[in-house]
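Can't paste images in this forum, so I'm doing it all in text. The chain is below; anyone willing to post the predicted C-alpha cells underneath?
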Amino acid sequence: MNDRIFHVLEYYKIMEQLEDHAASSLGKEQARKLKPSTDLHEVLQLQEETDEAVNVVRLKGNVPLGGVVDIRPSIKRAVIGGALNAQECLEVAGTIYGGKQLKRFIDTMEEPSLPIIRNLVGEIASLNELETEIKSCIDDHGHVMDGASDKLRSLRSKIRTNESRVRDKLDNYTKSKSNMLSDAIVTIRNDRYVLPVKQEYRGAIGGIVHDQSASGQTLFMEPQAVVELNNQLQEAKAQEKTEIDRILRDLSVRIASDHDFLAHNVMVLAKLDFMFARAHLGQSMRAAMPKMNDQGIIEMKQARHPLLADEEVVANDITLGKDYHAIVITGPNTGGKTVTLKMVGLCTLMAQSGLQIPALDGCELAVFQDVFADIGDEQSIEQSLSTFSSHMTNIVDILKHVDEKTLVLFDELGAGTDPQEGAALAMAILDEVVRRNARIIATTHYPELKAYGYNREGVINASVEFNIQTLQPTYRLLIGVPGRSNAFEISKRLGLSSEVIESAKGHIGADSASVENMIASLENAKREAEQDHEEAAQLLEQAAQLKKDLENQWNQLDKKREALYQKAEEKAEKAVQKAREEAEAIVSTIREMKHQATLKEHEWIEARKLLDEAQPKLTNKKTQTNKATNNSNRELEPGDEVLLLTLNQQGSIVRKISKNEYEVQVGIMKVKAKRKDLQFVKSKEPIIEKPMATVKGSNYHVKPELDLRGERYEDALHQLEKYVDDALLAGYPRVSIIHGKGTGALRKGVQAFAKRHPQINNQRAGGMNEGGSGVTILEFK
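Text version of the structure:
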C-alpha cells in the first residue's frame, strides 16, 4: 500500500495514539513502524496477539513494564570493546529487572490460557547474576558506590579526609582574616578550594590566583598553606576516576558476555509492550476483535469512526461483499457520507494492522492487497490542475491497479465538471471497477446515480438520513434507500413562498420527479416496515409471556387435579377398608349362627357373593394401559376422544392423515400422532358406561425435559433420579437434562448417573438446536 492512503484516511493519527499507549521506547518504535499486512495468516496472528493482551488488561489493568529501555546501542558498544558509563549499565540492570517483573506477573495469572503471551515471556532470560553484579556497584541514581571495590572505598575515604583538612585550613582564614575577604566563604575554582580575596589584600594572603570577578575587585585565591593539601586531594580524585573506569570496564565486559540473551530479551519485551499498547488503544475506543477473511467480505455492526469522540460519532451498520460488491451513497452534502467512507477505509487498515476496531462483537473485515481512496479537494495550484483534473489523475492511477483484492473509496465521484457529463463518467468508472470485482463504496450528489443501484447487479444504493423537521442530518446510514436532495422541503421550512417552490418543481424533469417520488416511497415503506417490525416484536413478546402464563396455569391445574385424585383414592380406600371390616364382622356372625340355625350352604355362598359385589372397584393406570392394548385395532373417527399416550394427555381426533397417523386436538395445540400412541376413550356419540373412579398416579404429567441449572450438586442428582423414574413411567423414549455449561461438574454427574442406570440405553450431548454442551440427551431402552 502506498503512503498516500495513510494520509488520506488519517491512519498516522491512529499510530500517534498507539504510540502514546506504549510504555517504553521499544514499544513506541514498533508503533511508529506499524503498517497494514496483506497476508491473512499474519493478520490473524496479530489479531490473536492483541486479543490475548486485551484479556490481560481487562483482568489485571496496567501491565508492569517499568524500567525497560532500549539498551541495544549499549549492548553493541560493549560487544566491540567499548566501556559503558554508569547510567548505561544501570539501564541494562533495569531492563533485566523489568523483564523478570513482567514474567512473574504473567506466571501468576490463572486464566485465561494466553498461549502466545506465555510463550513469549517464557523466552525471557532471568540473568540474575548480571543484574546483582551491576546493582552491587551502581546505586539507583547512577553513581558508582564505595563498595564496588576495596580500593575505591579506600580512595574515597582518603578524599574525604583531605577535603576535611583543606576546609579546616580555609575556615581558619575566613575567621581570622574576614576583613580581607569579599565574603567569608570557601568556594571552588578549577576543582580546587579557594577564597574570595579583595584585590588590595592579594599580597597579604599570598598563594595562587585561579579566577577573578567581572569587576576585578575580587580574586579567587588558593592560599599557599593549602596548595599541597589540594594537590593531594586532586591526586586521590584522579585515582578514584581511574578505579571507577576499571569497574565500569569490567561490567561492560560482563554485559558483552551475555549480549545474546540481552538482545533477545529486548526483542521480546518490545513485542510485548507493542501488544499491550494495541490492547490499551482498543480499550480506549471500546473496540472489538474482528473476524478476518480473504473473500472481500465486510460486515460491521454499530461501527464508529475511530478518530471521532463518542459524544459526536453516530454508529452505523455496514455490509459489503456478500450480496453486493458496491455501495453508492447519494444525498446532499454535510450529511456524513465522507465520514462513513473514511470510517470503512480506516477500520480496514486498522484491522490489517492487528488493531481492534470500534464496533460491536462479531464484526468481520477483509484483508485487501490494496486500499485506494479518492477523497477531498485535490486542487493543485502548483501543478495548475483544477479539482476535476486532480481527481481524474488520481482515478486514472487507481484504475491501473484495481482487482478483486482491492477496496476502492470514491468521494463525490465525477464532481467538478458538467453535471450530465460528470454523472455519465461516474457511472462508467463504477461499471469498470465493478467489472473487475473490486469492493467499492462511492458517494455522489448526482441524481442520475440514484437509480444506478437498481440497474446494476452487485450494486446497492444507500443514503444518509436527513431530518426535515430540524433541518439537520442524523448521520444514520440507510442501506438500500437512495438519498433525496430535500431542497424543496428545506426551502419551504426556511420561509420560501409556496408559489416559488411550485414554480421550481415545474422546472425539474419528469424523470427526476419520479425518482424523488420513488425515494420518498421507499423511505416511507422502510419506516413503516420498521414500525411493523417493532409491533411484531412486541406481539411476539406478549405471546411468549401468554404461553408461559398458560403453561404455569396448566401445571397448577394439573397439580390440583392430581391432589384431588389422590384425595379421592384415599377416601375410596378408606371406604373399601371399612366395608371389608363390616363384611368380615357379618361373616363371623353368620358363621356363629350357622351351627344354631338351618342356614343352607348355597344360601351362605350367595350371601358371600353379594358382599364381594358390593365392594367398590378402582380403575388405575395399569388398567388403562391394558384397555389401550385391547382397543388398539379400533378404527378412530373425527370427534372420538382419545388419550395421547406419549404426552399422557386427553384430546379429540380432528382428522385422519394416513393409514396409521391422525391429527389430534390437545388443549390449544394440534399434534400428529401414530395409531399405536392413541388410546380410545369414547366416541363422539355418548356411550353409557358404569360410573367408575379413575385413579391416576403422581406422574400423570411429566415434562420431556428437566432443568437443573442453579441447583446444588446433591439436590440436582436427587431430582434427576426421581425424574428419570417418572419419565420411564410416562413412556418417554428420550428426555433432555438441562445442566448448563459452567464448571462442568453437574454435566459429569449426570453422565455418571446415566452410565449406572439400567434403563438408560444411551446418552449424548445436545445438538446445535438442542442446547449444545449445556444439555445431555438420555435415551431409554
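Residues 664 and 670 are 6 Å apart (CA to CA). The chain has five domains: 3-127+258-284, 149-232, 291-508, 617-694, 705-780.
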